[in-house]
Design goal:
Blueprint (H helix, E strand, L loop, with lengths): L11 H15 L5 H8 L6 H6 L7 H11 L3 H15 L3 H14 L4 H14 L2 H8 L9 H7 L6 H13 L3 E3 L5 E3 L8 H25 L19 H19 L29
Antiparallel strand pairs: 1-2
């Protein structure tokens, strides 16, 4: 059995499970109690509780786990950042530690793909460029693509974005040197997926706010609706919005004469608590 490579993980509990199994396979006498003695834990089942999500790790216990598994310094540093990323409550903290994890990953295809995936969701213009490359003769230069975007993007940033999109398999060139799109789906674990999706929405909401001053009303549609609703009907409302998104895609997504990229933000969120929420019994 091959020793788990910590740099291939984004969930520290999953890593600990695999690491424990590796130790059990390679060292028959290895057990939770044996590990606790190595790490200096008084509780013989502490590691088991952590792996099952019933306990979190602190700065002290992170160091103890690293000692018990004999991590080298790069592994210890990566493990610490992964724990902090997984356990952080605030999005800004999770994003901070995930970027530190990306920087620490060893060079190679895995690092390239994960960095490209992060950029795709964290830089608004990557999804836009993926659409723009299909315009006209599909041979536009970085300068041409950058100049078409609002706000404009520098040619060097467009070049990097194109490289990221190719690394993700989202675009490529055919035999004639024309750009083409693929139907590749971006997938990742739940821990990172929620972080990246949040990054994407924050970027697009920021652009929506800026569009109020950037574009005349005839070129945009920013409207709002404030209504009262039963909390139990939130799911029904979300389904209506999902159906609307599907209708929009069906109606407009395959437009052969497309010549502009448009972002559609649909936002629905509570502004008050239900009458009975937060009341004392």
């Amino acid at each position: 059995m091959k020793r788990p490579c910590i740099f291939e993980y984004n969930d520290y509990r999953e890593f600990l499970k695999d690491m424990f199994l590796f130790k059990k396979e390679t060292t028959p006498s290895f057990s939770y109690r044996f590990f606790s003695r190595l790490a200096g834990f008084s509780s013989p089942n502490f590691l088991k509780l952590v792996m099952e999500g019933q306990r979190n790790l602190t700065n002290t216990s992170i160091a103890s786990v690293a000692k018990g598994f004999k991590f080298k310094k790069p592994e210890r540093d990566f493990f610490e950042n992964m724990v902090f990323m997984n356990q952080a409550a605030a999005h800004s903290e999770r994003d901070h530690y995930y970027r530190k994890m990306l920087a620490a990953k060893t060079h190679g295809k895995l690092k390239t793909i994960e960095t490209a995936r992060y950029d795709y969701f964290s830089r608004w213009y990557l999804p836009v460029i993926r659409e723009l490359v299909m315009f006209g003769d599909r041979k536009q230069t970085s300068e041409q693509i950058g100049a078409k975007m609002i706000p404009p993007v520098k040619a060097k940033e467009v070049e990097l974005a194109l490289r990221r999109l190719e690394e993700l398999g989202l675009i490529g060139k055919d035999e004639q040197g024309c750009w083409r799109q693929t139907d590749t789906l971006l997938s990742t674990g739940p821990e990172v997926k929620s972080l990246l999706i949040t990054n994407f929405h924050k970027e697009m909401i920021r652009l929506a706010e800026e569009s109020i001053a950037r574009h005349p009303a005839k070129n945009r549609d920013i409207t709002a609706l404030t209504i009262s609703i039963e909390k139990k009907r939130i799911g029904e409302l979300k389904q209506k919005i999902a159906d609307f998104r599907k209708d929009i895609l069906k109606e407009f997504a395959d437009d052969d004469n497309a010549n502009q990229v448009v972002q559609i933000n649909i936002q629905a969120f509570p502004l008050t608590k239900p009458d009975n929420e937060g009341e004392k019994p």
